[in-house]
Design goal:
With about 325 residues, this protein is α/β, with parallel strands linked by helices. The protein has helices spanning about 1-20, 45-60, 75-85, 95-100, 120-125, 130-140, 180-185, 200-205, 215-220, 245-250, 255-290, 300-305, 305-315, 320-325, and strands at about 30-35, 65-70, 90-95, 140-150, 155, 170-175, 190-195, 210-215, 230-235, 240-245, 295. It is built from 14 helices and 11 strands. Helix content is about 45%, strand content about 20%. The strands form 2 sheets. A 6-stranded mixed beta sheet has the order 7-6-8-5-9-11, sandwiched between helices. Strands 2-1-3-10-4 form a 5-stranded mixed beta sheet, with helices on both faces. Helix 2 packs antiparallel against helix 11.
């Protein structure tokens, strides 16, 4: 049934695209593109995407409609990436972690402590590195429109505050099913345990796991403060996301619609980054209000501990990529 729905969606996309091949002198027909997203309706990413959709609609006098399908209505992020390559999913907002399953070089963005701060993060994605990685995307049939900020991920647990790698010993910490993230938590001193996100709350509640790692907004929204007590600002991961469109779909759009998507995406990116910073700060205050203890950590000790993770990536993809990011000023 899933493949049947995808086949139908692909046919619809092809038929819609055929209508776009009309002569440049004719009035643009209305086009609707779906933007797939795994996060819930109230997540700030989707608020930003709806804001983007409104701007695109206004700029094109309503001839280009973007419909945000949130809450994983079209499957998971891997489904979105595959769908954009095939042309059966028009657009999506996906994290760079799942993209690395198709383009291994994207693991660069999952390296621990690769970004010093927000200013550094912005300079990297707006510079030669960001351009290079969008070129890699396009070679796989996906056109990147802009980057999203997911904010810093931090360790939270039910046992004790984490200040140094020694404090991580004996703690079973949930991570995404990503080898580089498993290696990172292990290098930080913990015991990484890959697990589906939907199973995490129960695992923490039952004591199967000691903790996990995530951005403060997600910790608050999913009520992990109910089953853990300590939130330590390790700031170890900051993998960005991308807003992208299937190249097959892109190539069928009118020039006016392409321009609208690109130009408004240039405005969307800083809008979303600023929004993420506000949400992160607000969520930390809310977590405090729910009784979670927030604490700082020894960054130097953690950065030293995870160096082998950088070395492993460098041996596989080239240390120059890491150097280019770290030396961005």
């Amino acid at each position: 049934m899933i493949w049947a729905r995808r086949a139908i969606a692909l046919v619809v996309s092809i038929l819609t695209g055929s209508a776009l091949l009309a002569g440049a002198g004719e009035a643009a027909e209305k086009v609707t593109l779906r933007i797939a997203s795994v996060s819930g309706p109230q997540h700030h990413h989707n608020n930003a995407l709806r804001w983007y959709a409104e701007r695109v609609a206004k700029r094109t006098d309503g001839s280009l409609e973007l419909k945000v399908l949130d809450g994983a209505q079209l499957g998971g992020e891997r489904d979105y990436i595959e769908g954009m390559i095939l042309g059966s999913i028009e657009m999506a907002q996906v994290s760079t972690g799942p993209v690395a399953g198709f383009i291994p070089e994207f693991d660069l963005f999952s390296l621990p402590y690769i970004f010093r701060n927000t200013d550094h993060f912005v300079k990297v994605i707006n510079g030669p590195v960001g351009t290079k990685y969008f070129e890699l995307l396009e070679k796989r049939g996906i056109k990147g429109l802009c980057w999203f900020d997911n904010g810093y991920r931090n360790v939270f647990n039910s046992k004790r505050p984490i200040r140094t790698p020694e404090d991580m010993k004996g703690l079973k910490i949930r991570v995404m099913e990503s080898p580089i993230m498993v290696d990172t938590i292990n290098a930080m001193g913990g015991s990484a345990t890959p697990m589906a996100y939907g199973e995490l709350y129960t695992a923490l509640q039952q004591g199967v796991l000691s903790g996990a790692e995530n951005a403060p907004g997600n910790v608050f929204n999913d009520k992990f403060f109910e089953v853990t007590k300590f939130y330590s600002l390790t700031n170890h991961f900051r993998p960005p996301g991308v807003v992208a469109v299937s190249l097959k779909v892109w190539n069928r759009l009118t020039k006016a619609h392409q321009t609208a998507l690109q130009e408004e995406a240039k405005v969307l990116q800083p809008y979303e980054i600023d929004l993420t910073q506000m949400v992160e700060k607000d969520s930390l205050e809310k977590l405090k209000g729910k009784g979670m203890q927030i604490n700082e950590v020894d960054f130097e000790a953690f950065q030293k501990a995870v160096k082998p993770v950088h070395d492993k990536f460098g041996a596989k993809h080239g240390a120059d990529l890491i150097k280019q990011v770290l030396e961005t000023r």
